[in-house]
Amino acid sequence: MLVFFLLLFSHPHRAFSAHCTTVAATKTYEKCMMLPTQQASMAWTFHPHNATLDLVFFGTFISPSGWVGWGINPNTPEMTGTRALIAFPDPNSGQLVLLPYMIDPTVKLQRTPLLSRPLDIHLLSSSATLYGGKMATIHNGATIQIYAALKLVPNKTRIHCVWNRGLYVQGYSPTIHPTTADDLSSIATIDVLSASASVDHNNVQTLKTVHGIMNAISWGIMLPLGTVTARYLRHIQALGPTWFYFHAGVQLSAYFIGTVGFAIGIRLGELSPGVTYGLHRKLGFAAFCLGGLQTLALLFRPKSTHNFRKYWKSYHHFVGYACVVLGIVNVFQGFEVMGEGRSYAKLGYCLSLSTVVGVCMALEVNGWVVFCRKAKEEKMKREGLVSGYDKDSGSHS
């Protein structure tokens, strides 16, 4: 199953070209670099004698009415605090415009619209052109080149680059960009002198894939399977206590694998400053805590003759089912976070989960059939005993 999910999570169509270009429409640059997301790239020439940086950013539109932006964050590698240049079609003339914006926390939380204002960095010049010249039009997939010349802080050659793109612009206010994994990871720290990036995106992507596979298998498949064994196998007398050991073994294994996946998720959060998945994170913590409570409950399991056994069983069932539901919901949330909402990986998981649900339905129907049959037999036995008693009473009289 691990290999199955690994194959489904791999996407050859997502691989982008490792080649960049130093030739733009207006000039040629000394160095270039492919950026890790959105098939974007950047070329630049750095002048150490006056700490001046001439650059061009290559990006693509995803909508005829959308926007493409590039910027730098003077302090940290995150979206909040970025000084950005955003290009989009003018709502009045339809011509390409490039305006400066400051990305502050209120904009990130969507409390206020993003309004253009002068930047507080030493920006010498900026412009934008579409690939194809004056006859080019803005459409889905149109390539744009954003030019900028800025003066860096002396003896500081590392810059935090942030780039993204969106679907709509309201007036002159770009709306929020998509929230797929690639869109939320469009950040890189680049040394313009050595042309090296400090963040290895491939390692982060590998961790994301491992995190998704481990949690899908543990919280999304094994935990429900363990619950199924406890509900339906315990009534088979021929198994004896085997069902309990199998149930405990599956649940403990699922929690162990899920704990590793949870730890990888925490590490991913540390490696992705500025990237926050609020709902996914909260559901993950809730499922992990409930799973821990279930594990501890195993240590305090009273004997079947104890007065508190019925209260323990109620607690165990409630927490267990809540953990299963939260785990499954969070697996689906994880697919959306990773941008796998329409992927074969999600389809494979849905088929696996559907199989488990189908088995549950079949066992549930069979259980009710057996229950009704036994109830009918008991009723007939009671009626037979009553009839026999009445007959005996009549003979004595």
From TrEMBL:
Q: Does the UniProt entry include the keyword Transmembrane helix?
A: yes
* InterPro entries to which the protein is assigned, alphabetical: AIR12_DOMON, Cyt_b561/ferric_Rdtase_TM, DOMON_domain, UCP037471
What protein name applies here?
Cytochrome b561 and DOMON domain-containing protein
Question: Do you know which SMART domains this protein is assigned to?
Answer: B561
Per UniProt, heme b binds at H211, H247, H280, H316
Q: Which residues cross the membrane?
A: 212-232, 244-264, 284-302, 314-332, 352-372
Alphabetical list of Pfam families matching this protein? Cytochrom_B561, DUF568
Q: List UniProt keywords, sorted A-Z.
A: Electron transport, Iron, Membrane, Metal-binding, Signal, Transmembrane, Transmembrane helix, Transport
Q: Where is the DOMON domain?
A: 38-166
The positions making up the signal sequence are: 1-17
Q: Which GO terms describe its molecular function?
A: metal ion binding
Keyword Secreted in the entry? The reply is: no
